[in-house]
Amino acid sequence: MPDNKRSQIITQGTQHAPSRAMLRAVGFSDGDFNKPIVGVANGYSTITPCNKGLNDLSLKAESALRQAGAMPQMFGTITVSDGISMGTEGMKYSLVSREVIADSIETCVQGGSMDGVIAIGGCDKNMPGAMIAIARMNVPAIFVYGGTIKPGHYKNQDLTVVSVFEAVGQHSAHKIDDEELLQIERHACPGAGSCGGMFTANTMSSAFEAMGMSLPYSSTMSAEDQDKLISAGDSAKVLVDAIKKQILPRDIITRKSIENAVAVIMAVGGSTNAILHFLAIAHAAGVEWHIDDFERMRAKVPVLCDLKPSGRYVTADLHQAGGIPQVMKMLLNHGLLHGDCITIGGQTIAEVLKDIPDTPRADQQVIRQWDNPLYAQGHLAILKGNLSTEGCVAKISGIKNPKITGPARVFDSEETCMAAIMARKIQPGDVVVIRYEGPKGGPGMREMLSPTAALIGEGLGDSVGLITDGRFSGGTYGMVVGHVAPEAYVGGTIALVQEGDSITIDAEQRLLQLNVPDDELAQRRAAWQPPQPRYSRGVLAKYAKLVSSASSGAITG
User: Fold this and answer.
1) How far is residue 144 CA from its own chain's centroid?
2) What is the pLDDT of residues 223-255, one digit of tens each?
């Protein structure tokens, strides 16, 4: 079988002389038309530090592809900066961008009859967007992560962008002054790379490495380190070999490899967004995977890594401590990883991990010893009850009170809730409800980092609950419950909550309950009317019409 199995349709035969003429104009010569054409999906932008360094990686990959005997074709993909758009209307476009990224990669690769694609991304929707496209197309592919940002430093403390969000709450509570806030702002983000804790970008990159779609150690490298550049070139070479061997994404993305990815997500204390994204990736790959599968994995996988947001260390520290391979080896040794899963390099997971030590080094504290985990069970819990019959997601690491029952404080948008928090109208014991922020209702399922971080900053993180049909940032922690489904916009019970209603969040029982009699709820449901769509045209209007429930991954097709 020729290596240009797909692209020969545009490069071979007299009838395709016009195609060859156009390809000559972008650098092809006589000897190149029998080579595989490989797309370089370049997520470079100066919109966000997460993607700032991606052009250098893309150029390195392009050069390595040529050296390996392939013909690269570079094209751009978009990004939205969650950290910059947080708390604004712009944040509604963040989850939407996942679908746009997937559609753009699929469009270019399929439209150009490419033989493979190397996707290079940074900000957190780049990863699932690329992987959804890769799973849909099922042409040889590899993902290259742009790398994590190095920690900022101020007053002997490691800082991330979440430090700034929390500082806003501290400032509101008069715990720090204007100068302290300014210094934290100045020092939090020292250069290129994705947000530094085990937030969504680093969670997804780690999961892709565990799934076998990225090279070992590549998911935790710092963006500005030379290793990251070298890894991009190595990834290109591995991809060309995968094209020769026809190792396809759906050979790699299976139910067992998704279990491997989720095991690592639990072990590193990863983001709630990973649940949404892996439901979507599984759907694209045709793999049976449901929201309850995350709870099944949570119950048997310990949290082994002490990482921000609820822990002490950043992802750059995890890399120095042994990275994802060290975590995977521990899981493999204890029967929590499928060692027979194939990787993009052609090796099995067990073969990749053969020479990794069985136990983490004693001179570090980022990766805990197996018999001394941070938590005995995973941290991403699926809660159900009359407030979320389809299920919702709680991040239960680092919370002091796993159960709270309190009066509902109801807000129909993030903005109105944030105004109440900043005006210090939220009291200990309250359960904040932010609704009409779901996939359809927002639309776009905004992340609620601003209100959750403000509550943490005001010292209310352990005494106030928060539930929403929106999402949370990977930087969020505390007694918070997101992805409530069915969402308010489609008449879910969250739409029926009234100010002062009693709500119970019980992480131990995995329960989210509105303590209102069924007959009263039936009366409220009969009186409820769906709101008018917030947008009648454009991207958000199209998304609202197409998007599914969060419980199935907020997919659009």
Assistant:
1) 15
2) 999 999 999 999 999 999 999 999 999 999 999
237 and 143 housed in the same domain? yes
Task: Give the confidence band of 1 by pLDDT, cuts at 50, 70, 90.
Answer: low
Q: Please give the tally of structural domains in the chain.
A: 3
Contacts of 196 (CB under 8 A, 6+ apart): 148, 149, 150, 151, 158, 160, 161, 202, 308, 314, 315, 316
- Report residue 157's pLDDT band, with 50, 70 and 90 as the boundaries: confident
Judge whether 314 lies within some domain: yes
Residue tagged active-site, from 7, 97, 271, 473: 473
CATH number at residue 471: 3.50.30.80
Tokens of 33: 């038309």
> Are residue 402 and residue 447 in the same domain, yes or no?
yes
Q: Are residue 340 and residue 403 in the same domain, yes or no?
A: no
Question: Is the residue at 374 inside a domain?
Answer: no
pLDDT of 155: 93
Ramachandran angles phi, psi of 391, nearest 5° = 110, 150
Same domain for 206 and 115, yes or no, is yes
48-88 pLDDT, tens per residue?
Answer: 999 999 999 999 999 999 999 999 999 999 999 999 999 89
Q: Supply the DSSP string of 255-298, one letter for each residue.
A: HHHHHHHHHHHHHHT--THHHHHHHHHHHHHT----HHHHHHHH
- Between residues 294 and 310, which one has the greater pLDDT? 294
The residues near 315 (Cβ < 8 Å, ≥ 6 apart) are 148, 196, 197, 198, 202, 220, 307
Segment 525-537, tens digit of pLDDT: 999 999 999 999 9
Which residues span the domain enclosing 72? 36-150+191-352
Q: What is the 3-state secondary structure (H, E, C) of 352-376?
A: HCCCCCCCCCCCCCCECCCCCCCEC
Q: How far apart are CA 501 and CA 146, in angstroms?
A: 46
Q: What is the separation of C-alpha 494 from the centre of its chain, rounded to a whole number of angstroms?
A: 25
CA distances to 276, 373, 473, 530 from 551, rounded to whole Å, are 8, 29, 17, 20
Q: Are residues 203 and 331 in the same domain?
A: yes
- 162, 207: one domain: no
pTM: 0.96
Give yes or no for a contact between 74 and 37, defined as CB atoms under 8 angstroms apart: no
232 in the same domain as 119: yes
> Is 231 among the residues known to form the active site?
no
